[in-house]
Specification:
Elements lengths: L5 E2 L1 H11 L12 H11 L2 E2 L9 H7 L7 H10 L3 E5 L3 E5 L3 H23 L3 H15 L26 H8 L3 E7 L2 E6 L15 H16 L1 E2 L1 H8 L4 H10 L6 E6 L5 E6 L3 H7 L7 E3 L5 H4 L1 H8 L21 E5 L2 E11 L4 E9 L7 H17 L4 E4 L10
Parallel strand pairs: 1-8, 13-14
Antiparallel strand pairs: 2-4, 3-4, 5-6, 7-9, 8-9, 10-11, 11-12, 12-13
Helix pairs in contact: 1-11, 5-8, 8-9, 8-10, 9-10
Length: 403
């Protein structure tokens, strides 16, 4: 029996970092073209509303290039229309030339979503959404508050319900509307044909093309994974569809591989045909420290993170304060190809400082002079990115490791 191609946990970590844009120094410039290349390399960037220092999407990009500025993403989204905003596993910004695949997603999920929303909001829901579309056609782009009953009192108020989120979110999820910009962090919705450039919305791909693209492009960016992990990368297809594609393309587009785990175990997965070569040739991660956002793509797959990095992480935003192990919103700390700690930090805008509440080393990791110097450099980078004047450390901020 021929032995399966095998990579070590260290090679797996190095490959993941390389594929996800963390395999090279982040101390570099980033013009709009380079930013588009980076987002295309990642596939998408998750968007999240929590803002402890900067929002997730900006921190994800900044962690890969110190030259990145939030105005660049806004320009690519709202002016150049090189990106659009919709759903992968969560709300994300996505290259606009991927839009035909999302058109197929809209068609595939329209029936399910329309039935679900009708059950939630009554049989007249879809008829009401037509009124929302007509309003936007006539009056232009809207925020959700523009459609609230409080804003539409008097003879011209043709709705008695509150469509500010319900209808707009439904119409966005089925492709009738698109996000043309944000005000603060609030979405501004407009008709899709006014937002998405014509070449990208002429026609959806067929379903077979969607499955093929989803799997091929996911494997390229993941390096290796289960059928469920491959399907979940874009969240455009089912696990069964990904499994069938892998089986049909076994030996050409994917091969069975063995990936060692940090505890010595091994997982048999689907991998790129060039997995061993790609892992061996992957860039050695820079030795400095990087503070990552909790929604960074490297953090997304908790099983992979624990298996390859030995890093057991969860976001405790929705955990009651008294039951949290670490804190409300704690940032992972990456050094080279390993996670070495987590830090509770936030911008105190009133005091104009980056506040450091706590840092927990990982078990077996010490923060001696060398690592502290790296941390100081990274905190100063975060301070500058957050446009803050200073850094403030709370008493007792260096905590013991939690086993």
């Amino acid at each position: 029996m021929t032995a399966l191609p095998t990579i070590t946990a260290e090679e797996g970590r190095r490959l993941i970092h390389d594929l996800q844009g963390l395999g090279e120094s982040h101390r570099r410039k980033m013009d709009d073209a380079a930013l588009m290349d980076l987002i295309r390399r990642l596939g998408f960037v998750q968007v999240d509303s929590i803002n402890m220092l900067e929002r997730a999407h900006h921190m994800i990009l900044s962690s890969r290039a110190t030259g990145y500025r939030p105005v660049q993403l806004k320009r690519l989204l709202e002016k150049k229309r090189h990106l659009f905003e919709n759903w992968t596993h969560d709300a994300s910004v996505i290259p606009s030339d991927f839009y035909p695949y999302w058109m197929r997603r809209f068609e595939n999920r329209r029936r399910t979503l329309s039935d679900r929303y009708a059950r939630w909001h009554g049989p007249d829901f879809l008829k009401e959404t037509e009124q929302v579309l007509n309003h936007i056609e006539t009056n232009g782009a809207v925020l959700s508050r523009d459609l609230s009953p409080e804003e539409r009192k008097g003879p011209g108020a043709w709705w008695n319900w509150h469509p500010s989120k319900t209808a707009l979110e439904y119409l966005w999820r089925v492709g009738e509307l698109a996000i043309c910009r944000r005000e603060g962090f609030q979405k501004v919705y407009d008709l899709t044909h006014r937002v998405i450039p014509p070449p990208h919305r002429e026609a959806p791909v067929d379903h077979d093309a969607l499955v093929d693209w989803s799997c091929r492009e996911a494997v390229k960016r993941l390096g290796f994974g289960t059928a469920g992990e491959i399907a979940g990368y874009w969240d455009l297809i089912t696990t069964d569809e990904a499994k069938a594609w892998c089986e049909q393309n076994l030996g050409t587009e994917v091969v069975p591989v063995r990936v060692e785990q940090i505890d010595g175990g091994k997982r048999t997965l689907f991998g790129r045909p060039d997995l061993v070569e790609a892992a061996q040739q992957a860039s050695v991660a820079p030795p400095g420290l990087r503070i990552l956002n909790p929604f960074d793509p490297v953090m997304r797959d908790r099983k992979r993170l624990k298996g390859l990095f030995g890093f057991d992480y969860r976001i405790e935003v929705f955990v009651p304060a008294e039951k949290r192990t670490y804190g409300y919103y704690v940032f992972p700390i990456l050094e080279g190809d390993r996670m070495v700690g987590r830090i509770d930090m936030k911008a105190d805008r009133a005091a104009d400082v980056l506040q450091i509440t706590a840092l927990w080393p990982e078990p077996g990791v010490s923060f001696g002079k060398g690592r502290m110097k790296k941390l100081e450099s990274e905190l100063d980078r975060q301070r500058k990115f957050g446009n803050l004047s200073g850094i403030r450390f709370e008493d007792g901020w260096m905590r013991p490791a939690i086993a």
